[in-house]
Amino acid sequence: MADRMPGWRNRSHLYKINLQSGARQKLTSGALSTSQASISPDGRRLLVTRSKVDLEQRPYSTSQLYVLDIVTLEAELLWEGPWLAGAQWVPDGKTILMLGGPSLFGEIGINIPTGTSPNEYDTQAYFFDPVEKKVEPLTKGFDPSINQAHFSLSENCIYFVVTEADFVHLYRYSPKSKEFEKMYCGVDALGSFSIARGKPMGVYIGSSATVPHKAFTIDLKRRRSSLFRDPSSEDFADVGFGELESWTYRNQRGRDIACRVYYPPRFDPKRKYPCIVNYYGGTSPVTRGFGGRYPLNYYAAQGYIVFVLQPSGATGFGQDFSGLHVNDWGQIVADEILDGVKKFTETHPFVDPARIGCIGASFGGFMTMLLQTRSSLFATAIAHAGISSIASYWGEGYWGYLYSAYATANSFPWNRKDLYIEQSPLFNADKISTPLLLLHGSADTNVPPGESTQLFTALKLLGREVEYIQILDQNHHIMEYGKRILWTKTILAWFDRWLKRQPQWWFDLYPIIFDNAEKTDDIIKKDVS
After folding, report:
1. Which residue, 132, 161, 250, 402, shows the most beta carbons closer than 10 Å to its own?
2. 360: alpha, beta or left, given left = phi > 0 and alpha = psi -120 to 50?
3. Pairing mode of beta strands 380-384, 305-309
């Protein structure tokens, strides 16, 4: 199965190198690759992980955790199971801190109603005693999802970098009191983080929705951060940002859905603005980091209100919230997006309800497609690397069946046609009337480009307004600099065409070539008018 991934049969192993003599000693070998997870405090033992294919149960691979004595080369299997995300020694050299899904140790880490499946992307933290085989769940009642874990030897505590709603925060955890303390870091989205070996000092990189990435030092004892480097200060010295508003609405389940609004610079509440709605809708929120694949500040600077939602199913809001992603495939999310946009326009009269567009990528691209089969609310829509047929995505690409091991627990095309067919936009293409732009990298190994190609084919035969731009030699993310610029211009030109009634930029980028040349004059007149 995994041979679809180039180089999958290559194997990696661990070596020990004597830095003085240059002598090398191979520590691991065999049919499975090995990775180093952690070095024991005394420097003598390694935690080593292996993964083996196991097609009989989700997630179709089993992780193994070994302890390897680097002097005697004796290895002992400590643990074997699914959903492992990481492991490291606790400073006492006896206990292991393990990160993984709620089901890492069976039911002990699960905190959702009986009869529902947990979202295994919602990473939890555990203490594991390999001798007594005892497990202590540390974050079972802690809503944020764990991204990173760092021990502070000088304080005897753990620092967790976590996803919390649409923020990425730092928390201090005391194993003695079993309490979490949020640390103020001065940013909304914490990135890489590191702690000094013998002092209560740390360094980190972070950004906020309207603040570019900066580097900081933090005195962990005094809880005080200081700016260390601001590499973009000159680049953004003359750039003005619009205001950012946090906004929530209550869904039909009685839970508040977190949203945020980007305003254009020099915003005038007496005007009517076009609006771009952005979402992911998959298993993680659209966090408040600066820039990224969709530069929301840049969209706002072009005269748009940008509205971002964090629908049910995302991690960072608690296991009961993230668990709604499993075996749903967009039903809950679609309802929440449509309901949220309607309530947003009702409470924000400066948004023109006739000029609302939407955009999403990957699962968010699927949501863009799905939304158009459910509603005519949007004046236009853009789907990048969207999934039009859940069944073909499941069986093709590198990750389809692996992602479905998380998202559609024990549900397959042969036993859940209601999901794989009825929820697939391709099988509901005749319901789409919204002008739709499909974007896809021609070398996408995650969501194969055929997902856009087949929906494009359907909509063209149905006579619907659709365009398909394939970015040559690009994968799931558009990374090549020149193509990234053109891709961004393409997105804005499409929105300008349909939301500002300014088609000139679009037709300048993509001169008109029609299947029926006789329609050329009529369509140009319609767009310009």
Report:
1. 161
2. beta
3. unpaired
